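Tokens in:
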């Protein structure tokens, strides 16, 4: 025995424990939850001290008025609340204690102690070598108080519980059962092991893992225990480690590290050899790429690495200092706050760089939704340890499941001897366990991992008498844990997990209320749901014959080296299994057409324990939707469930929004194999029960999925599977409305310390590994990828292969990495890791491999690089060219369009959302256009942050010797150069940056308003949801049209809701990016100048001097979003607005016919009712005869045709302003001074050519030369020529208008045109303008941009295709 002295104990304990627990106020959620079941310790008889458990806060002590959101944090505190007490316990454990090891009916006196490094519990053994007589703390599952294991029970003796405890360890949950001399000693070891377990998982211990690993390898290779390794022992160790080096190369390296030249290596020399072999070039290259000084990474370097490469949220300088303190190996490096390569390597293996998002290891989802809105971690036939016919039933199986986070366990209850109910797989040869023992185990372990409710799925086959005993056991043993509150009929949904914290729910059959309350009755008949009845009787008979022939019952399935395949100690004659997804079933009939199920008696007492999870037979979706209650749930065999999913997927999802469904494996799976659970999760099924005792890829999906949300056993379903107004088809291959598709790129770089195939020989050949990546979700998202295999290298293989894939529904997807050894006949399984795609971290990450039973394989990893970004249609290479303009981007833009249902009230509501959704989409697409273009110009990747992109802009400018200045204008920024000459490429980069900031302005101004209005529209339409079906029926529609109407309603509600979310997130992103710009500018030392922006009062006073209201058209809005500071010829409406706003127009009215005439640009209004007409404005600018058609809204005009042809109008003479006297001396005939008399009456305006239409005209307009406006409303209306001499936009410039008497009659509108039509309520002002101007636009086509009119609003149900052909926001 090798115990430590007091001096060594003090050094080890105080340096390791205190350091590991100095941040005890923030323990991991998993560690907190695992300690929930710790009870206060007994007072020490010898010292009077209490155990560490006294420092805990029990759940029952939490105040009722404490906020529910904080209960999970206060429910249990870390065992390290009193570090001094923990240190005292560790000292006692290191000193060693005499205990009795209980093994069957034998007991052995042994001395147990904790090693100095706090990594192993060892004991003295006469038959085992020292490295065998120990338990690694990393393999310990729990320290269980009392004599509760099978080992204690099988001894046939009675032990005092307070003196006994068991250490459960290993992938097969072995038990080391120990009897202490007194109760206080047992408490010291129990609480000490639990504290050390938390300490082992902490980052401080993980940083030392490599040293411990090297020492363990050395001890294992030292067969003769002489403290050295010779060359033969090194060769064997290298083969064990899968190092594919030749003997010649290995011999050379051996001699290089053999400092004393004695032909052997001591531990230090071996460490040097191992470190040289394990040095990773890919990590070294990554390290030196981010260091500003040789061989060390500073705090700033580490900060930049985390933010740029690892895509971490802004990391503070102090956080980086703490990481260096935690992971740096040398004392000098810690003092200087520098990270060496060894420290960087340890850091990259730490939890901060794991591929699984560390934040998802805590409960982060909303736990206040109804139970039906969650996936629930579930187990089938939980009591079994092996196959379905002859394996062992065990209470231990329930403990394992509960401590793994399982929230629904199954109990098959049958009559037992002595009126004591039992649990086993009925009609089979499986062993039997007592019902009361299972309930006691559930009481002790139900909430060890998670505080949220546990569901007991009772399959009842007992008599009334033993049913009453079952009810008594549950009430007596579980006590207040048992949820007995009656169902609240006033509610429409189940209670939430948060409402049911620390509660046990019973799922089972229930009697009618009148029968349950009848004291004169002992019960009633209910249908028997015997899942064991699905087993083929011939299989049972074969198993019975095997047992009678001498084969031992209780045989269990054994995992073969090839994962997912099993060797059994017996065989069965089985019929061929039917494909679980084949066949057809009607949606409105029960799943199985078979003889009525037999009836069993249900007692009143047991019936009363069932409330919110009442089991009922499924009678079809129509019956369920009309008569089903929220607390009714049905169980489906896998075949029936897959048929429902295939034939009635939409209805299946709808059913699961309000009610719970349970799916269980087919009875023919007698080997306890599993079906694929992913398709059932895609259908919204909550309780997808699997045989948890059987490893394989299906079980990997289950365990991988339920890692997230703190492993609490409840995962919130996607919103489209919860919303009342959404429809989701799990069989669809089309994009889902409201779900943002994502693009994932995974580069598989290298592997580290890969072991031999699972279950194979450790002395076999060196492996040839390859990586397999699987993506499982919707059928359209399922993908698979394999790398090439690397010959003879499992120690550090390098692949450097990349896969890119786009996922339509990321929230439903699982990502599985697996390693195989390539072989000629069949590839052997080595390890795997599965996780939700939404939990994948970006950047350089390590994938820690696990065994099929989900035990972590020490130091075996895959090194990958992951990039994730929203899927977009922009081509980065094309964006950086000068030809990529926002106009071209808008031209092919697709907008969300509502689908109408031919119900006027609802269609009217939906129609009002069209303009808002188009505006929302424009804001988003324009912003992302400029954002991606800017990233491309600075050579950043699409997934790069704006902070990184601004850094690159600063670096590029610095390299080009250009001094930048960043102007802060309100909330946005503008970049400018102090240098006179700026290269075109740099200037293009600056312009795009400014355009990006200008595109931020409308987002900040409009996002909240758009969100608010869309919310109102959504709420109005939501109130109609329950009447949709009846209203459609009222309109005389058949069933098919009704279904289509409901589908269109749901579709539109989904896209409205998604736009609400998108526009809200867009503003968050815009504000976040503005913060990143400021942060990046500060870090690269850009000069920042804050410019004053006019206040609201100043802006109002500026508007007060303008006589004509400002234009606020949709096209202007698009230009503002784009940051477009130029004005093309096709934008003359903007030009007119600019001119009118810059000068004061004084109209001289010379004819009564013009009394009602106004030159007016109206602001677009979404609510007012009006008819707009288009007038044509001919603009002659700077003698260049730039003719342009623009649209200007006027007051409503008559839409009736003029019956009488009006006489040809005379041209109007326009007098010149006095301020333009110098222009009078110019020759006649120029366009800017020409009088109307010089123009022939029959002259028609110049028509733009097709070439002019394709490309916009440059905007070099000289306003000082004057502008001639020729205004006409239609062929029957006169022309009005207006000459404006602006004298460089002098504010006193005037306009004089004259007209001939012939105009008076034709220019006066009919009386009936004063009021617009009542049904024209188009929210988009562009639509009516298009409709009324189509004829005049075709007759005088001066436009350089051809427009397509929107579909007329008066139509009841415009199709999305028609709407998509309309304008794109460029009127």
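Residues out:
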């Amino acid at each position: 025995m090798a115990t430590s002295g007091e001096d060594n104990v003090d050094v080890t304990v105080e340096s390791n424990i205190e350091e590991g627990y100095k941040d005890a106020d923030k323990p991991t959620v998993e560690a907190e939850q695992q300690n929930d079941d710790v009870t206060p310790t007994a007072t020490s008889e010898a010292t009077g001290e209490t155990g560490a458990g006294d420092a805990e806060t029990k759940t029952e002590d939490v105040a009722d008025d404490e906020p529910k959101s904080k209960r999970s944090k206060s429910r249990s505190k870390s065992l390290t609340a009193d570090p001094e007490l923990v240190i005292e316990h560790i000292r006692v454990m290191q000193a060693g204690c005499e205990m009795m090891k209980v093994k069957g009916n034998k007991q052995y006196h042994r001395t147990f102690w904790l090693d100095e490094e706090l990594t192993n519990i060892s004991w003295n053994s006469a038959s085992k070598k020292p490295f065998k007589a120990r338990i690694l703390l990393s393999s310990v599952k729990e320290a269980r108080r009392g004599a509760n294991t099978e080992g204690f029970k099988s001894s046939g003796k009675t032990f005092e519980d307070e003196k006994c405890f068991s250490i459960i360890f290993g992938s097969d949950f072995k038990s080391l059962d120990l009897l202490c001399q007194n109760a206080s000693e047992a408490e010291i070891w129990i609480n000490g092991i639990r504290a050390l377990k938390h300490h082992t998982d902490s980052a401080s211990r993980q940083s030392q893992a490599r040293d411990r690993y090297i020492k363990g390898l050395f001890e294992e290779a030292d067969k003769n225990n002489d403290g050295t390794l010779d060359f033969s022992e090194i060769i064997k160790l290298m083969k064990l480690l899968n190092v594919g080096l030749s003997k010649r190369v290995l011999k050379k390296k051996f001699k290089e590290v053999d400092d004393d030249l004695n032909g052997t290596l001591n531990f230090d020399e071996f460490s040097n050899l191992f470190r040289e072999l394990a040095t990773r070039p890919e990590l070294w290259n990554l390290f030196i790429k981010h260091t500003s000084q040789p061989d060390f990474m500073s705090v700033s370097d580490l900060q930049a690495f985390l933010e740029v490469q690892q895509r971490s949220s802004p990391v503070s300088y102090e956080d980086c200092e703490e990481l260096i303190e935690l992971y740096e190996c040398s004392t000098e490096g810690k003092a200087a706050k520098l990270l060496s390569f060894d420290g960087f390597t340890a850091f990259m293996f730490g939890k901060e760089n794991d591929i699984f998002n560390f934040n998802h290891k805590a409960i982060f989802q909303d736990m206040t939704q109804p139970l039906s809105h969650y996936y629930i971690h579930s187990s089938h036939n939980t009591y079994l340890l092996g196959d379905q016919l002859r394996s062992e039933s065990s209470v231990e199986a329930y403990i394992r499941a509960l401590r793994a986070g399982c929230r629904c366990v199954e109990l098959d209850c049958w009559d037992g001897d002595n009126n004591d109910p039992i649990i086993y797989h009925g009609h089979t040869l499986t062993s039997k366990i007592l019902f009361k023992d299972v309930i006691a185990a559930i009481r002790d372990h139900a909430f060890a991992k998670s505080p949220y409710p546990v569901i007991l799925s009772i399959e009842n086959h007992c008599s009334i008498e033993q049913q009453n005993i079952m009810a008594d056991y549950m009430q007596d043993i579980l006590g207040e844990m048992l949820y007995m509150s009656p169902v609240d009929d006033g509610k429409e949904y189940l209670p939430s997990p948060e409402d049911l914290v620390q509660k046990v729910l019973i799922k089972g059959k229930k009697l009618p209320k009148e029968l349950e309350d009848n004291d004169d009755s002992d019960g009633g008949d209910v249908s028997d749901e015997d899942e064991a009845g699905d087993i083929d009787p011939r299989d049972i008979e074969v198993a019975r014959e095997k047992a009678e022939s001498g084969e031992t019952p209780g045989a269990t399935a054994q995992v073969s080296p090839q994962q997912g395949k099993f060797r059994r100690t017996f065989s069965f004659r089985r019929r061929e299994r039917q494909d679980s997804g084949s066949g057809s079933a009607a949606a409105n009939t029960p799943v199985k057409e078979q003889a009525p199920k037999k009836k069993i008696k249900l007692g009143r007492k047991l019936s009363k324990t069932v409330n919110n999870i009442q089991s009922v037979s499924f009678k079809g979706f129509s019956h369920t939707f009309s008569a089903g209650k929220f607390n009714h749930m049905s169980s489906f065999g896998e075949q029936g469930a897959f048929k429902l999913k295939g034939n009635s997927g939409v209805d299946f999802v709808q059913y699961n929004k309000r009610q719970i469904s349970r799916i269980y494996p087919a009875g023919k799976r007698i080997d306890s194999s599993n079906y694929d659970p992913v398709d059932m999760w895609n259908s919204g099924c909550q309780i997808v029960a699997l045989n948890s005792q059987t490893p394989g890829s299906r079980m990997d999906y289950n365990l991988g999925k339920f890692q997230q949300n703190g492993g609490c056993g409840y995962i919130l379903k996607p919103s489209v599977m919860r919303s009342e107004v959404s429809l989701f088809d799990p069989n669809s291959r089309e994009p889902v409305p409201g779900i943002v598709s994502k693009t994932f790129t995974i580069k598989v770089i290298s592997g580290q310390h890969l072991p031999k195939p699972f279950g194979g020989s450790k002395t076999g050949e060196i492996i040839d590994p390859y990586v397999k990546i699987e993506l499982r979700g919707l059928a359209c998202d399922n993908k698979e990828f394999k790398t090439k295999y690397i010959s003879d290298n499992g120690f550090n293989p390098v692949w450097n292969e990349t896969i890119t894939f786009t996922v339509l529904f990321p929230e439903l997807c699982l990502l599985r990495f697996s390693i195989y050894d390539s072989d000629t006949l069949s590839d052997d399984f080595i390890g795997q890791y599965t996780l939700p795609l939404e939990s994948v971290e970006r950047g350089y990450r390590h994938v820690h491999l696990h065994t099929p039973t989900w035990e972590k394989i020490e130091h075996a990893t895959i090194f990958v690089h992951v990039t994730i970004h929203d899927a977009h249609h922009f081509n980065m290479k094309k964006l950086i060219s000068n030809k990529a303009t926002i106009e071209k981007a808008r031209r092919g833009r697709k907008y969300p369009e509502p689908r109408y249902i031919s119900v006027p009230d609802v269609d009217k509501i939906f129609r009002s959302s069209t303009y808002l959704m188009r505006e929302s989409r424009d804001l988003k697409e324009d912003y992302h256009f400029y954002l991606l273009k800017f990233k491309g110009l600075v050579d950043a990747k699409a997934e790069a942050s704006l902070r990184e992109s601004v850094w690159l802009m600063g670096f590029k400018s610095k390299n080009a010797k250009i001094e930048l200045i960043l102007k802060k204008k309100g909330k946005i920024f503008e970049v400018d150069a102090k240098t006179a000459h700026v290269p075109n490429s740099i200037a293009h980069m600056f312009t795009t940056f400014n355009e990006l900031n200008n595109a931020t302005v409308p987002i900040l101004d409009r996002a909240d308003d758009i969100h608010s209005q869309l919310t109102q529209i959504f709420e109005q339409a939501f109130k109609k949801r329950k009447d949709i079906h009846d209203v459609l029926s009222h309109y005389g529609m058949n069933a098919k049209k009704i279904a289509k109407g409901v589908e269109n309603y749901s579709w539109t509600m989904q896209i409205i809701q998604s736009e609400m979310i998108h526009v809200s997130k867009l503003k968050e992103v815009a504000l976040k990016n503005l913060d990143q710009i400021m942060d990046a500018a500060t870090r690269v030392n850009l000069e920042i100048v804050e410019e004053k922006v006019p206040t609201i009062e100043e802006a109002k006073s500026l508007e007060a001097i303008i006589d004509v209201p400002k234009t606020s058209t949709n096209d202007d809005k698009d230009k503002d979003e784009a940051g477009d500071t130029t004005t093309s010829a096709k934008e003359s409406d903007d030009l007119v607005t600019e001119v009118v706003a810059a000068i004061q127009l004084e109209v001289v009215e010379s004819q009564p016919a013009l009394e009602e005439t106004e030159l007016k640009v109206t602001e677009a209004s979404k609510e007012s009712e009006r008819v707009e007409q288009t007038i044509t404005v001919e603009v002659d600018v700077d003698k260049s005869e730039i003719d342009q058609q623009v649209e200007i809204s006027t007051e409503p005009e008559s839409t009736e045709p003029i019956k009488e042809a009006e006489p040809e109008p005379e041209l109007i003479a326009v007098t010149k302003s006095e301020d333009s006297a110098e222009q009078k001396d110019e020759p006649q005939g120029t366009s800017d001074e020409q009088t109307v008399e010089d123009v022939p009456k029959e002259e028609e305006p110049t028509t733009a050519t097709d070439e002019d239409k394709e490309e916009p005209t440059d905007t070099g307009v000289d306003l000082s030369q004057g502008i001639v406006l020729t205004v006409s409303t239609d062929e029957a209306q006169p022309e009005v020529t207006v000459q404006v001499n602006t004298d460089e936009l002098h504010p006193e410039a005037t306009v004089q208008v004259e007209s001939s008497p012939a105009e008076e009659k034709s220019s006066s509108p009919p009386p009936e045109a004063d009021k617009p039509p009542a049904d024209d309520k188009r929210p988009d002002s562009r639509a009516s303008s298009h409709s009324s101007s189509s004829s005049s636009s075709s007759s005088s086509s001066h436009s350089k941009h051809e427009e397509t009119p929107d579909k007329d609003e008066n139509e009841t149900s415009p199709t999305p295709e028609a709407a998509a052909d309309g304008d794109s926001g460029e009127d």
